[in-house]
Design a protein that fits this description.
Layout lengths: L2 H12 L3 E7 H8 L4 H6 L1 E4 L2 E9 L2 E7 L5 H21 L6 H18 L21 E6 L10 H12 L3 E5 L4 E6 L17
Antiparallel strand pairs: 1-4, 2-3, 3-4, 5-7, 6-7
Helix pairs in contact: 4-5
Length: about 200
């Protein structure tokens, strides 16, 4: 998502500098600890003369927008609503002309957003119509890679390896650094995987 545009607009409206800030999820949790009503579901935190607004999380890192200004509670709520609306608009209406990996990252963002909001029953938006497999019955499988942090797995290579293993087309959705969601037809659970004996008498 292009959060830069949102940052620039907020700087102009508030007449105050804003910066992107990445911090460990445990640090974000500590900042939120003891706040009233968990700081409106932990969407923002006040730290002295600054306010941190939750944008999204990737792995164990929280990506936030830091605004260097004293904000009234009403201003904070308006910015929280703006961030939520921006995130939803960008996820739903983003063009699907980019690579498959980028499309699956956008799908991940959409899934995680609605899980956080408690609206997991929302239907897929029309922006994903270019992925017809998403609108079919799929079997979800969670894949965890147990390898060192300094080793990176190429998306295309992993997808090709998994499709060869399952002998079927799949959708591969990156979740965290070492976790992927595999979506495929019911054939993923058939006896043919791993050498079944359905053809034997």
């Amino acid at each position: 998502m292009n959060w830069e545009r949102l940052k620039v607009n907020l700087e102009h409206i508030l007449n105050a500098p804003a910066h992107f800030r990445d911090l460990p999820a445990v640090e974000w949790d500590k900042l939120c600890a003891g706040r009233a009503a968990a700081e409106r579901e932990r969407k923002s935190v006040v730290c002295g003369n600054k306010a941190l607004f939750y944008l999204f999380a990737s792995g164990d890192t929280v990506h936030a927008l830091e605004v260097e200004a004293r904000l009234a509670p009403s201003e904070r709520r308006l910015i929280e609503m703006t961030v939520d609306a921006y995130r939803e608009r960008e996820t739903v209406h983003a063009p699907m002309t980019d690579s498959e990996q980028e499309r699956m990252l956008r799908l991940r963002d959409w899934i995680l957003y609605h899980l956080e909001e408690g609206t997991a029953d929302k239907p897929l938006p029309d922006a994903f119509v270019s992925e017809p497999a998403l609108f079919e019955t799929n079997v979800p499988l969670l894949l965890y890679g147990d390898y060192s942090d300094n080793r990176r797995v190429a998306y295309d290579e992993l997808k090709k390896l998994l499709e060869s293993f399952f002998d079927a087309s799949i959708l591969l959705v990156p979740l965290k650094d070492k976790e992927w969601l595999i979506l495929g037809g019911e054939s993923l659970l058939s006896d043919s995987v791993g050498g079944g004996d359905k053809d034997e008498d």
